[in-house]
Design goal:
699 residues
Length: 699
């Protein structure tokens, strides 16, 4: 039977304004940290309760200064931010949903404006001045002379003066969808990739009078090309094109990839390195993918999972054995090549404390030797590090368990490792920093022996039995941390878990298998997802762990999560309503058989995968829907209807099934927002409603 709280009937704006969670969501969130190629000029984007703007700072004082003046919570994100080589301009993209699985470049309108704001490339002087929209488009790069911006529009390459003095123009038109633009440093030739469905080829554009030059075109996917420092060669990734006889769907297979170099004059490619033909040696799937660069000292650097962890490697451009630059049981993320191409900076879940596996710290390593240094330590998190000021200064974003994220700088030439926070005065006065607790690490064993790491938010209140909630992240290749998260989406979840703890709930945030941070076998778990949902064992184990704790009321255990976390929430409620007494399913997936594409994958082929029928049945049984008859616990379903990651119909379908089964449910539909709650007000509404639902059910 459908039940709707009176609270949920209030207009969204009024609901957000009167929502106690709003204070916990009042933090600012910085992204897009970048620097000029020389000097000490920094720029970043800052989301201040939905008002997203560009900020800059310059050494030695590094005093933050707001450049743009966007004053509405309108859901228009800022991405692709960069600083021109001469340090005089900031270029960025405004609009779209660049975390989407599809339609990321299409307009969105969560503020219900009568005129759509189209995704546009913009520029603004570093010293201050008018923000100019240069053109509709995306993925801009700035020419070496800082005069021109190249970008993609309609799948083709365009260019426009950085000052907006003339309109943008189409440089050339070719088959397929063009991306991966990169200027040469010498004569501003443009390197690009043309993606053509079952293969992709690399080209070079010189000028309007010169035909496109294709570099070693093949039947493969050639991608992520980069110029050599002398601009006479390129390095790129080659992997097999689409096709071949159908293979087993339920057996994990090596996904091959290789590194090639190519001479520009002859357009001939040479194999430099081939990934090991093992599961671990498959195409890397963590942040940045291959993280390929042509670095100083004629070294090619890249990331590989081949030793079981996402590590950085280096190889001479003329061949030889690869060198492992980083070693140990940790992962490398947010990888950046220094301006002089001599160092890689990155964030890693390692440091001088065993708990650092649940954190991120800034690190650096030379491109030609294994001299890795962890540059930051402690109980906080630091990410997106980069070197500026002739490599004497480290810039990064950092947070603690209580203080929300801020940009920061640290002088590497000084021994005290003092960190200068940028914009601490911008943290709103009403942000309840004093109410935030420090989560702690808990490790337990799942039913099949997998060791599961979780973050425990334990509220004050002594030994009295408290209601408890399991939080399930999405992705699933994510890792929740002992502090604020580097993703804006998961910063919402962290704030939500802190708010729930402030209300007296015990919260357990689960790093279930398929997540990152614990090695290849955990990340690429067997029989998981549509192939058997083995990760649900970790969620059930979390509920059972709570059930055994003396400080938990075993009859009041709830569960919530978004996206993949919504899927696992629905699995928990459908399969184990006796354990999970209530839940909130936020834009979850509910039918793997249709979501996986298996039903239509072979429509135009005579040949079928040998285990197609078994794979379809397995996908179906890995979904919540087959277990609807045992779903008894009440649930709140939340979904926005411009979701570009999970089809809105996933929630429509499950609601109709809940109705038929007479399961108590409530709903919140957010009109015209996306999967990522681009409008701050909507995020406040969603996570405030999560807490309100659990308070009504358990308090």
């Amino acid at each position: 039977m459908k039940k709707i709280s009176l609270l949920l009937l209030l207009p969204m704006q009024l609901l957000a304004q009167n929502n106690p969670f709003a204070a916990f969501k009042a933090y600012n969130f910085p992204t897009e940290l970048h620097a000029a190629a020389s000097g000490s000029k920094l720029a970043w984007a800052l989301d201040e309760q939905g008002k997203r703007n560009v900020y800059v700072a310059e050494g030695p004082a590094f005093k933050p200064r707001k450049l743009t003046s966007f004053s509405k919570d309108d859901g228009q994100e800022i991405t692709s931010l960069s600083v021109s080589p001469d340090g005089k301009w900031i270029v960025f993209v405004r609009g779209g949903d660049h975390g989407a699985n599809w339609d990321h470049g299409l307009p969105l309108n969560p503020s219900f404006e009568t005129s759509l704001f189209h995704v546009q490339v913009a520029s603004v002087p570093f010293d201050g001045g008018e923000t100019k929209y240069l053109s509709e488009g995306d993925a801009p790069i700035i020419s070496p002379d800082s005069k021109t911006v190249a970008f993609t529009k309609g799948g083709q390459v365009w260019a426009v003066p950085i000052d907006g003095s003339t309109a943008g123009r189409n440089l050339f038109t070719t088959r397929g969808t063009v991306g991966s633009l990169e200027y040469s440093a010498v004569d501003s030739e443009l390197l690009f990739v043309a993606y053509r469905n079952d293969h992709s080829i690399i080209g070079i554009y010189t000028n309007a009078a010169t035909p496109i030059k294709w570099i070693a075109p093949s039947f493969s996917f050639d991608e992520t090309p980069h110029w050599s420092p002398d601009n006479k060669s390129i390095v790129f990734i080659r992997r097999p094109g689409a096709g071949g006889a159908p293979d087993s769907l339920l057996v994990k297979k090596h996904i091959p990839w290789s590194i090639y170099t190519a001479d520009i004059a002859s357009a001939k490619a040479t194999l430099l390195w081939k990934a090991p033909a093992t599961l671990r040696g498959s195409v890397p799937t963590t942040e940045g993918g291959y993280n390929l660069h042509w670095a100083a000292n004629n070294r090619i650097v890249f990331l590989s999972y081949q030793d079981g962890w996402p590590h950085l490697y280096s190889i001479a451009a003329d061949g030889g054995k690869e060198t492992l630059l980083t070693s140990g049981n940790f992962m490398c993320e947010h990888i950046t090549l220094s301006a002089d191409k001599k160092y890689l900076t990155f964030s890693a879940n390692t440091g001088n404390n065993q708990m650092d596996i649940e954190r991120r710290h800034a690190a650096k390593v030379s491109v030609d030797k294994a001299d890795m240094q962890v540059l930051t330590n402690g109980s906080g998190n630091e990410w997106t590090p980069l070197l500026i000021n002739d490599n004497n200064t480290l810039a990064f974003i950092c947070a603690t368990a209580q203080r929300p994220p801020l940009p920061a700088v640290m002088q590497l030439s000084k021994s005290d490792n003092a960190v200068q926070l940028l914009g601490e005065e911008l943290i709103p006065a009403n942000f309840p920093k004093e109410k935030l607790i420090t989560p702690t690490q808990v490790i337990f064993k799942s039913a099949d022996g997998v060791m599961v790491h979780v973050d425990l938010f334990l509220p004050a209140g002594g030994i009295s039995k408290k209601p408890a909630i399991v939080y399930v992240h999405g992705g699933p290749p994510r890792q929740m941390l002992l502090g604020w998260h580097y993703s804006d989406y998961y910063s919402n979840a962290y704030a939500s878990n802190q708010y729930l703890a402030s209300l007296g709930f015990v919260v357990l945030s689960v790093n279930y298998r398929l997540g990152i941070g614990y090695g290849y076998e955990f990340h690429q778990a067997k029989n998981a997802g549509e192939a058997g949902a083995s990760e649900y064992l970790d969620i059930k184990a979390a509920g059972e762990w709570l059930q055994k704790q003396t400080f938990v009321d075993s009859k009041k255990i709830g569960i919530y999560g978004g996206s993949y976390g919504g899927y696992l929430t629905a699995m928990a409620l459908a399969k184990d309503s006796k354990l999970f007494a209530a839940g909130v399913d936020i834009h979850g997936v509910h039918d793997w058989a249709s979501r996986s594409g298996l039903l239509t994958a072979y429509n135009e082929k005579y040949e079928k995968a040998p285990d197609l029928d078994k794979a379809l049945k397995t996908a179906w049984l890995s979904s919540p829907i087959p277990y609807m008859k045992t779903w008894k616990s009440p649930v709140l379903i939340i979904h926005a209807d411009d979701d570009r990651n999970v089809q809105f119909n996933e929630s429509v379908d499950i609601i109709n099934r809940l109705e038929k089964q007479h399961v108590p449910y409530e709903t919140i539909m957010i009109a015209d927002d996306t999967h990522h709650w681009m409008k701050w007000e909507n995020a406040v509404t969603v996570y405030g409603a999560v807490a309100e639902f659990f308070v009504r059910k358990f308090k």
